[in-house]
Amino acid sequence: MEGELAHIGAGLAAIGSGAAAIGVGNVAGNFLAGALRNPSAAASQTATLFIGIAFAEALGIFSFLVALLLMFAV
Amino acid sequence: MASEAQGAETGGLEFHPMDQFNIESLFGGPIAWYTPTNAALWMGLAILAVIGLMVLTTTKRSVVPSRGQSVAELAYGFVYKMVEDVSGKDGVVYFPYIMTLFMFIVCANFLGLIPMSFTTTSHFAVTVVLAMAVFLTVTALGFVKNGTKFLGLFWVSSAPLALRPILAIIEVISYFVRPVSHSIRLAGNVMAGHAVIKVFAGFAAIAVVSPIAIAGIVAMYALEILVSFIQAYVFTILTCVYLKDALHPSH
Hints:
The complex is a heterodimer. By secondary structure, chain A is mostly helical. Chain A has a single domain, classed as F1F0 ATP synthase subunit C (F1FO ATP Synthase, Up-down Bundle), CATH 1.20.20.10. In chain A, 91% of the residues lie in helices and 0% in strands. The longest helix of chain A has 28 residues, at 46-73. Chain A is elongated, with a radius of gyration of 17 Å. Chain B is mainly alpha-helical. The interface between A and B is medium-sized, with 11 and 15 residues.
């Protein structure tokens, strides 16, 4: 029974990856909106874009880690 | 995990998607620390690939570069510009370390995309060592270069005085979470992508959905090529950001 509950918990933790998707979409969408307004400044900001995406994604990765722990370690 | 693996008679999964990450001895027998395993083999191949790209193609340098030499020059220029832009002029001294990290991760990721191969960067053991090495180096460097002024990284002097202790706690936590997110981002992305490909491969055994599944595998494979490069890039650029924080800790 406990193992089954852990599987349900792992599925619930996967909701976090959807939340991370919203965050990454926000970063990329706002970058695109800014880049289309001022294309000449866009190239110099791609590094910032990737850093922003990486930070937004990190929290989704944590939920993935929780799911992995529930599946294999608990 | 055994229950999923026994769906073979219904045409479902005949293998577990995570089986591809098993570490096996190359010549059989039990695994000890000195046993040659598939992980050691593919890590060695990644290093050979780096040597092949960066050393062998540039031994006979020419003004008009050969194909290999131009790829090597492109990779060098790409990482050099990234270090210079993000870490600043005084971060360029640490360029060899960051170049080594980038080339190893990118080669290991791409070698892992070869069918039937083993992806070393999908293992937390590998990426945690890489990230801890970066974390310890950068922390030591911060204290050597700035002394106790390095602690100014946690004391946000531009914030109101009442807020600073709370911000300091948040900053300390986010500093020590760095190696965790740094390593798990790489391993998690690579491992999840490969596992998704295997899940699609499991559905390919069912005749009705196999065309969709095979199209899915092709699409995921294309995405994985992109992810392999981007994750190596993100790992390297975050190393540059941490290096910048160590060299210039004031906010």
